[in-house]
């Protein structure tokens, strides 16, 4: 009986190998976005072609044109974006506090590197007047290689 107890850990205790496996899995899960971005950049550099998902378009609704322009200009100044389209007068219907609301908003289409989406989203949440700003991105699947090169240069750090 003593021999069996020495081979089997007590309930509630994890073996060191299980802890190490859990640590490796957690690290892999948390670093996946960064590793994916690095692998896309490496593949793009080696192949000399565009790799789907390297760049993204970020959609942001703003309550008025002045706020939209301020966010657009600051995103460009901070090198978080290479280009921003400001689309006026988007009619929006949405649920807010259990009620259907209707508003006229300004839509920003922000073009940037996928690796900068998190920093851009964080910045927008800081300066945006909405309690929960609409900020989401879609990866660019295909496009002109020259445009993507220009986009890359627009978000490079000096």
Polypeptide structure, described:
The N and C termini lie far apart (69 Å). The protein is built from five helices and four strands; from the N terminus they run ααβαββαβα. With 158 residues, it is of the alpha+beta class. A hairpin with a 2-residue loop joins β2 (83-96) and β3.
Please render the helix and strand layout as text.
Blueprint: H1 2-7, H2 16-47, E1 55-62, H3 65-77, E2 83-96, E3 99-113, H4 117-127, E4 135-139, H5 145-154
Features:
158 residues; four-stranded antiparallel β-sheet
Characterize the largest beta sheet: strand count, sense, and whether it forms a barrel: 4 strands, antiparallel
Going across the biggest sheet, name each strand in turn. Answer: 2-3-1-4
- The helix content is 40-55%
The best one-word shape is globular
Number of strands: 4
Structural class by SSE content: alpha+beta
Radius of gyration: 23 Å
In short:
This protein has about 160 residues and is α+β, with helices and mostly antiparallel strands. It has helices spanning about 1-5, 15-45, 65-75, 115-125, 145-155, and strands spanning about 55-60, 85-95, 100-115, 135-140.
